[in-house]
What we know:
Layout: E1 2-7, H1 15-25, E2 31-37, H2 48-65, E3 72-75, H3 82-87, H4 93-101, E4 103-107, E5 110-112, E6 122-126, E7 132-138, E8 141-148, E9 150-155, E10 162-167, E11 176-178, E12 180-192, E13 195-208, E14 213-217
Parallel strand pairs: 1-2, 2-3
Antiparallel strand pairs: 4-14, 5-13, 6-9, 6-12, 7-8, 7-12, 9-10, 10-11, 12-13
Helix pairs in contact: 1-2
Amino acid sequence: xxxxxxxxxxxxxxxxxxxxxxxxxxxxxxxxxxxxxxxxxxxxxxxxxxxxxxxxxxxxxxxxxxxxxxxxxxxxxxxxxxxxxxxxxxxxxxxxxxxxxxxxxxxxxxxxxxxxxxxxxxxxxxxxxxxxxxxxxxxxxxxxxxxxxxxxxxxxxxxxxxxxxxxxxxxxxxxxxxxxxxxxxxxxxxxxxxxxxxxxxxxxxxxxxxxxxxxxxxxxxxx
Length: 223
């Protein structure tokens, strides 16, 4: 097995830089694994952990756009993140050890209609701090119709790949599981890995990509 290390040298919202780094890594036909190492110098996310996850998601998205999801991916963040907890991954030196010697497992890859990948969490919100007006479906199940604080969306390790819930301050709604979570409304904005895009959209969908992700994870015996 031949692997290449991609270390963060740009902000996590720079898609072109991520795509160029992946293209450079794949110029070597022998490369079968990419190790992603966030090194946060300038962040756009609320926390360092969110910035690390956003960078990881950008690298995976670049692989997806390049149609090279046959390449394995390993994640080496310095600290625990939402994505490491989601996928049962270590951080720090243990993550580097796993990245170099571990085995990849197939898991659902969750993306949205803007070709952006989510590895930790996403939310559908109302613009400018207002409540969200609209409706959300997970597959054929309706989460809400009307007005809510927000919708939280997460990838899952197991089938079918997506779960979503209505967020409430005191008692969050139950999780709905499916292949896709779609929100439509009059004032929808999208948050990915803690980063809010202020552009208002009429509809946003997070769904399982038709090709799964090869993620290096601990074996069941190690978890």
